[in-house]
Specification:
The chain is of the alpha/beta class and 542 residues long. It has 15 helices and 18 strands. Strand 1, helix 1 and strand 2 form a beta-alpha-beta unit. Bound molecules: flavin-adenine dinucleotide (FAD) and succinic acid. Succinic acid binds next to loops.
């Protein structure tokens, strides 16, 4: 058993920003960061377009960024949170610059600013087309210098420890569920250990892997959301899954799809259908730079109308020099599969990209479970509402990591006798993980096949366009997958694959449940049985 002051689960932008801040504030306290994979294997590393921030008040304004965010969010954003993120954003971006992240600059030393769908101004700071890789690098370098941070890789967090593990009844109506730490599967020893913490932050990222095609890496399995749901915490707005309009279409490639950043359209790339016709003007006045939900639905509709599996992104009017100056990584990737973007159009199709909902938090990042914060993509702060504005998530992660830090400072300084800090007392009572009666799973195919089924069900029935019959079918199939997987879980020793499958089925269930409750079409949720918006503007909390 380990004990720590601060426990941070996840090593993307949200987790590492928070870890750096608390470690710096409390040099005598211990900060433990855990990740289930390599240090930088995160959604953060794959971010391309950049970070939306107002830092040119001559040509842009906070109000314009606020308005763009609210318009994309389609009536469901928390206006207070939008204002917080937009206005606190510049200070947070300056911090990561001070930690060493580099953003591209013009010759005169001013930042280069890109534009993406739904933005009324050029405000996206970027590092070529590998912004996330650069930010993650800077964070990992800064963490390495911080002596009181212990960084443990390849440790899979299984569950949050609450009173439930001490034998108390905990259900959704229990008012004071408390987090005492986590159970974690050490992937080197294959043993489950317990870690007790005064304060835990979940920064476990997104859940794109629930779908067959996604821009997300394999770590994005919604573990944090599933853990909080099991621990009887509040989960919100899971139906709002953002499909990125332009993932590279590569027939036969499974798993993570390579992204063609929206910034390519920001710089003038044009979507064309099978017949080479530009089509976005039929769908929205903002054409190729309409918000993502509109562009993704338009592409889906063109693909269905013309019977193809992709549309084209035309960049042939770019010179090689102009394209590679901003998008060297995309140029190289396309060339590696025989596409010279100055001569050939790029085949693209929508792919699951971002989860707008998640663990419900307040404006300080507090979840509904005491001593448990959530931030980054796993959290639902109220910023995105029904649809996230492009490049707002890196910003949100940094602003909320700071807010979680501010609140943690106050909390950790509270008397250790406070009822919320019983952890010292309960430490000895938290039982070890009980693996009695379980055996090694005999057939891996029971897990891999269920995962394929889950991804098919979610993609075919709970994708860009939904209806009630599809949602009902999806729920019935998920019920069966759930039952079979629980049987396996009860009888097998746990493995990351089994734990992820279990978490992804839970996340799938929450997406379908949210989608079924929402009897309207709003933002990213489009149900052909209810094509209009309801007068009842509500978040769906599960
Ligand atoms: P992540 O960076 O995903 O980190 C999650 C961490 O949690 C990982 O370390 C993971 O290993 C760990 N973890 C998860 N489960 C467990 C567990 N059970 N046990 C232990 N560890 C666990 N947003 C923008 O604003 N601008 C962009 O340009 C942009 N481009 C994008 C491009 C791509 C291809 C993708 C996929 C996303 C993009 N996004 C972009 C979204 C943005 O990158 C993410 O929302 C953001 O990086 C999420 O950061 P995070 O810290 O919340 O999670
Ligand atoms: C992109 O670069 O198109 C992705 C930006 C984002 O997801 O915010």
């Amino acid at each position: 058993m380990q004990q720590t002051d601060f426990l941070v689960i996840g090593s993307g932008i949200a987790g590492l920003t928070y870890a750096l801040k608390v470690a710096n504030q409390f040099p005598d306290k211990k900060v433990l960061v855990m990740t289930k994979a390599a240090a930088d294997e995160t959604n953060t590393k794959y971010a391309q377009g950049g970070i939306a921030v107002v830092n040119d008040l001559e040509n842009d304004s906070f109000q314009k960024h606020i308005n763009d965010t609210l318009i994309a969010g389609d009536g469901l954003c928390n206006e207070n949170v939008v204002e917080i993120v937009v206005k606190e954003g510049p200070e947070r971006v300056q911090e990561i610059i001070d930690w060493g992240a580099k953003f591209d600059k013009e010759k005169d030393g001013d930042y280069k600013r890109g534009k993406e769908g739904g933005h009324s101004e050029f405000r996206i700071l970027h590092h070529k087309d590998v912004t996330g890789k650069e930010m993650e690098r800077a964070l990992i370098d800064a963490v390495a210098k911080q002596k009181n941070i212990e960084f443990i890789k390849h440790c899979f967090v299984v569950d949050i420890i609450t009173q439930h593990h001490l034998g108390y009844l905990v259900n959704k109506a229990t008012p004071d569920v408390e987090c005492y730490g986590v159970y974690v599967l050490n992937l080197e020893t294959n043993k489950i250990e317990k870690i007790l913490a005064k304060i835990t932050l979940l920064a476990t990222g997104g859940n794109g892997q629930v779908y067959r095609t996604t821009t997300n890496p394999s770590i994005a399995t919604g573990d944090g959301v599933a853990m909080v749901y099991r621990a009887k915490g509040r989960i919100e707005n899971m139906e709002f899954i953002q499909f990125h309009p332009t993932a590279l279409y590569e027939p036969g490639v499974r798993g993570q799809a390579f992204l063609i950043t929206e910034a390519v359209r920001g710089d003038g790339g044009i979507l064309r259908n099978k017949n080479g016709e530009p089509f976005m003007e039929k769908y929205d006045d903002r054409k190729d730079l309409a918000p993502r939900d509109i562009v993704a639905r338009a592409i889906d509709s063109e693909m269905k109308r013309t019977g193809t599996e992709h549309v084209w992104l035309d960049c042939r009017h770019f010179t090689k020099e102009k394209f590679t100056e901003h998008f060297p990584n995309i140029y190289a990737k396309c060339l590696s599969i025989g596409i010279d973007i100055t001569q050939h159009m790029i085949p693209v199709a929508p792919a699951a990209h971002y989860s707008c909902g998640g663990i419900k938090t307040d404006e300080w990042g507090r979840s509904s479970i005491h001593n448990l914060y959530a931030c980054g993509e796993c959290a639902s702060t109220g910023l995105h509402g029904a649809n996230r504005l492009a490049s707002n998530s890196l910003l949100e992660a940094m602003v909320f990591a700071h807010r979680c830090f501010m609140d943690s400072v106050a909390k950790i300084s509270e008397s250790s006798n406070s009822p919320l800090h019983k952890w010292r007392g309960v430490g000895g009572e938290v039982p070890d993980w009980n693996a009695k009666g379980t055996t090694e799973p005999k057939e891996m195919i029971l897990i891999t096949q269920s995962l394929k089924e889950l991804q098919l069900v979610m993609s075919d029935y709970v994708g860009i366009v939904r209806n009630d019959v599809r949602l009902q079918r999806a729920m019935r199939r998920l019920d069966l997958l759930w039952e079979e997987t629980e049987q396996l879980y009860e009888s097998s020793s746990v493995s990351p694959q089994l734990l992820e499958l279990r978490n992804m089925i839970t996340v799938g269930y929450l997406i379908v449940k949210g989608a079924s409750f929402r009897k309207e079409s709003r933002g990213l949720h489009y149900n052909t049985d209810y094509p209009g918006k309801s007068n009842l503007v509500q978040n769906i909390v599960l």
